Protein backbone atom coordinates (compact mmCIF):
# COMPACT_ATOMS: atom_id res chain seq x y z
CA UNK A 1 0.00 0.00 0.00
CA UNK A 2 1.54 3.28 -1.08
CA UNK A 3 -1.22 5.82 -1.66
CA UNK A 4 -3.99 7.24 0.55
CA UNK A 5 -6.58 5.66 -1.76
CA UNK A 6 -4.97 2.23 -1.42
CA UNK A 7 -4.82 2.70 2.35
CA UNK A 8 -8.54 3.53 2.37
CA UNK A 9 -9.28 0.31 0.44
CA UNK A 10 -7.04 -1.65 2.78
CA UNK A 11 -8.75 -0.23 5.86
CA UNK A 12 -12.19 -0.95 4.46
CA UNK A 13 -11.23 -4.57 3.78
CA UNK A 14 -9.67 -4.86 7.25
CA UNK A 15 -12.55 -3.56 9.32
CA UNK A 16 -15.79 -3.34 7.44
CA UNK A 17 -18.05 -5.27 5.10
CA UNK A 18 -17.79 -4.15 1.46
CA UNK A 19 -19.51 -0.84 0.85
CA UNK A 20 -20.02 0.01 4.54
CA UNK A 21 -19.29 3.61 5.56
CA UNK A 22 -16.59 4.11 8.17
CA UNK A 23 -14.36 6.76 9.69
CA UNK A 24 -10.64 6.26 8.94
CA UNK A 25 -8.51 4.82 11.74
CA UNK A 26 -5.07 4.95 10.09
CA UNK A 27 -3.86 8.37 8.88
CA UNK A 28 -2.16 8.45 5.46
CA UNK A 29 0.99 9.83 7.16
CA UNK A 30 1.66 6.26 8.36
CA UNK A 31 2.48 5.35 4.75
CA UNK A 32 5.61 7.53 5.07
CA UNK A 33 6.62 6.23 8.51
CA UNK A 34 9.94 4.38 8.44
CA UNK A 35 9.56 0.81 9.66
CA UNK A 36 5.77 0.67 9.12
CA UNK A 37 4.44 -1.30 6.17
CA UNK A 38 0.85 -2.01 5.23
CA UNK A 39 0.79 -5.45 3.59
CA UNK A 40 -1.90 -6.55 1.18
CA UNK A 41 -2.62 -9.46 -1.13
CA UNK A 42 -4.93 -9.02 -4.08
CA UNK A 43 -5.62 -5.89 -6.08
CA UNK A 44 -4.76 -2.56 -4.37
CA UNK A 45 -8.40 -1.45 -4.70
CA UNK A 46 -9.69 -4.79 -3.33
CA UNK A 47 -7.28 -6.40 -0.86
CA UNK A 48 -8.10 -10.00 0.01
CA UNK A 49 -5.70 -10.28 2.94
CA UNK A 50 -3.41 -7.96 4.79
CA UNK A 51 -1.72 -6.79 7.94
CA UNK A 52 0.54 -4.10 9.33
CA UNK A 53 4.23 -4.72 9.93
CA UNK A 54 6.13 -2.41 12.25
CA UNK A 55 9.83 -2.72 13.01
CA UNK A 56 10.99 -1.76 16.51
CA UNK A 57 13.32 -3.00 19.24
CA UNK A 58 14.86 -5.71 17.06
CA UNK A 59 11.58 -7.38 16.08
CA UNK A 60 8.83 -6.96 13.52
CA UNK A 61 5.34 -6.64 14.96
CA UNK A 62 2.54 -8.05 12.82
CA UNK A 63 -0.88 -6.65 13.64
CA UNK A 64 -4.30 -5.95 12.21
CA UNK A 65 -4.24 -9.05 10.04
CA UNK A 66 -7.29 -9.97 8.01
CA UNK A 67 -8.51 -12.41 5.39
CA UNK A 68 -11.55 -11.46 3.33
CA UNK A 69 -14.46 -13.85 3.29
CA UNK A 70 -13.89 -16.50 0.64
CA UNK A 71 -10.21 -15.61 0.16
CA UNK A 72 -7.81 -18.56 0.07
CA UNK A 73 -6.11 -19.19 3.44
CA UNK A 74 -2.74 -19.53 1.65
CA UNK A 75 -2.67 -15.72 1.44
CA UNK A 76 -1.58 -15.58 5.09
CA UNK A 77 1.47 -17.70 4.20
CA UNK A 78 2.20 -15.44 1.23
CA UNK A 79 2.05 -12.34 3.45
CA UNK A 80 4.37 -14.00 5.94
CA UNK A 81 6.86 -14.90 3.17
CA UNK A 82 6.80 -11.30 1.94
CA UNK A 83 7.34 -10.03 5.47
CA UNK A 84 10.36 -12.31 5.93
CA UNK A 85 11.82 -10.97 2.67
CA UNK A 86 11.31 -7.36 3.76
CA UNK A 87 12.79 -7.90 7.24
CA UNK A 88 15.24 -10.80 6.90
CA UNK A 89 16.45 -12.38 10.11
CA UNK A 90 14.21 -10.40 12.45
CA UNK A 91 11.82 -12.25 14.76
CA UNK A 92 8.15 -11.68 13.96
CA UNK A 93 5.77 -11.12 16.87
CA UNK A 94 2.05 -10.54 17.14
CA UNK A 95 -0.85 -10.72 19.54
CA UNK A 96 -3.60 -12.68 17.85
CA UNK A 97 -6.21 -14.74 19.69
CA UNK A 98 -8.96 -17.21 18.89
CA UNK A 99 -9.22 -18.51 15.32
CA UNK A 100 -6.67 -15.97 14.08
CA UNK A 101 -4.13 -17.35 16.55
CA UNK A 102 -4.83 -20.86 15.28
CA UNK A 103 -4.14 -19.68 11.74
CA UNK A 104 -0.78 -18.16 12.64
CA UNK A 105 0.18 -21.18 14.75
CA UNK A 106 -0.37 -23.35 11.67
CA UNK A 107 2.27 -21.18 9.97
CA UNK A 108 4.86 -21.83 12.69
CA UNK A 109 4.16 -19.18 15.31
CA UNK A 110 4.22 -20.13 18.99
CA UNK A 111 2.48 -18.62 21.98
CA UNK A 112 5.03 -17.22 24.42
CA UNK A 113 2.73 -15.66 26.99
CA UNK A 114 -0.11 -13.25 27.60
CA UNK A 115 -0.08 -9.74 26.18
CA UNK A 116 0.55 -6.85 28.53
CA UNK A 117 -0.30 -3.33 27.49
CA UNK A 118 1.32 -0.45 29.36
CA UNK A 119 -0.14 3.00 29.41
CA UNK A 120 1.59 6.10 30.73
CA UNK A 121 -0.92 8.74 31.68
CA UNK A 122 -0.15 12.31 30.77
CA UNK A 123 0.90 14.73 33.44
Quick synopsis:
The chain has 123 residues and is of the alpha+beta class.
List keywords for this structure.
123 residues, alpha+beta, 3 helices
First-last Cα distance: 37 Å
> Beta-sheet strand percentage?
25-35%
Low-confidence segments, ≥5 residues, pLDDT <50? none
* Record field, number of beta strands: 4
Mean pLDDT rating: 88
Cα-atom radius of gyration: 15 Å
Biggest β-sheet: count, sense, barrel? 4 strands, mixed
By secondary-structure content and strand pairing, the structural class works out as alpha+beta
- What is the global morphology? globular
What is the chain-wise order of helices and strands? HEEEHEH
**Strand line-up in the sheet with most strands:** 1-2-3-4
Number of helices: 3
Helix content: 25-40%
Task: Describe it.
The protein is an alpha+beta fold and 123 residues long. It is 27% helix and 25% strand. It has three helices and four strands, in the order αβββαβα. It has a four-stranded mixed beta sheet, sandwiched between helices. Helix 2 links the parallel strand 3 and strand 4. It is globular. The mean pLDDT is 88.
Q: Topology, please?
A:
Layout: H1 4-15, E1 36-43, E2 46-56, E3 59-67, H2 74-86, E4 92-94, H3 98-105
Parallel strand pairs: 3-4
Antiparallel strand pairs: 1-2, 2-3
Amino acid sequence: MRTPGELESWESAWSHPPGAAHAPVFPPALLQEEGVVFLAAGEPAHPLAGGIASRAAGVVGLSNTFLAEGAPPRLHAELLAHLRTMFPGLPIVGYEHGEALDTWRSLGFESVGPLRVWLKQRG
